[in-house]
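Box 3.1 A note on notation
Throughout this textbook, protein chains are presented in two layers. The first layer is the amino acid sequence; the second is a token string describing backbone geometry. Keep the layers aligned when reading.
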Amino acid sequence: MESSRADGGSYTDNLIGTLLAIFGNLLVSISLSIQKYSHVKLAGTKDPRAFYRTKTWWCGFVLTCFGEAANFVSYAFAPLALIAPLNAVSVLTSSILGLIFPREKSKPKDFAKRYGLSFLGCILTVGGTYLFVAFGPNSHDKLNAKNIVMHIVAWPVLLYLLLEIITFCLLLYFYKQHQANYLVIILMLVALLGSVTAITVKAVSGMLVLTIEGTMQLNYPIFSVMFVCMVASVVFQARFLSQACKLHDSCLIACVNYILSTTSAVVAGAVFYLEFNHEDVLHICLFLLGSAFCFLGVFLITKSRKKAKTFEPYVTMDMANGVPTIHDKGLVVQPDFNGSFSYGALVNNDGVTPVTLPVNQDQPPVSSRSTGTTRGLSDLKND
């Protein structure tokens, strides 16, 4: 009877945590879409107000707070291995919203050709979510301060933390000292910090829930330690993600970050909280299969998104030898076209007709750099 009650309570906790995580990710995705709509609406009008002075943006912000709160509480009820992969729900919801509200009209054939991978990715994501939720780890303990301390001092956890710290320091050394701004390195740093975030969020959330239920946990030093580590890891994650967004494509970042962060969180849950100790091989294999389906689905969803075309400048740096030099007679290298052309690559002028350079018949051709240099010296002597 006690074991059946424990199993029933564990199933109930898993169900509550899973539903909270799905609901939270849905709210976050919808709120981000609302905030984006607010920015686009302000950019398309002559409204001088800032974005934080609009009701639409604040509505999205409130929904974001509710969604993140639901995600935070879900860690107290379900294992990390169930909560971490559910971030695919946010990607799936964003993809569905993008399909429902397309910006341009297209024929059914072109629509199917363009969004076929997105439909396939959505199907794989839904199927993978069902697999890892149905066959994920079911063991879950109420985390109080004593249990968390016992998990921390275990030798597998200490070895795992040591390896993680060494790996993080090596990656940070190459990133800072050797300017290794590769996407994998930056997102590996984010994933390592994300594992710490997942461990600490689960601990803080579990102790807060126990405190609300009547068992005081906030007066233990481990709560303060976990809370500080949680805040610090979240802040540094945001910094590395902002650097990655400045250097790389956002769709690629979303895909790779989801895969690396989910993998690190599942490994952290397995090592720190021993979530797979009482699971058989079949359930573990089906859980891994569901996670792989989610990874492939997110990859297909982000791959099919339309990328912005980069503008190629009219004059590049490797063409400097072919550009005529400016002389005292007033010859312009590249004249403006009715004030609409901006020299360089700062403004996209794909719709502007290319302008031919004026040819001066009296001006002798420039043969080499040495000739131009000799002529400049003679002009200085004449002056």
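Residues 119 and 179 are 39 Å apart (CA to CA). Residues 2-44 form the longest helix (43 residues).
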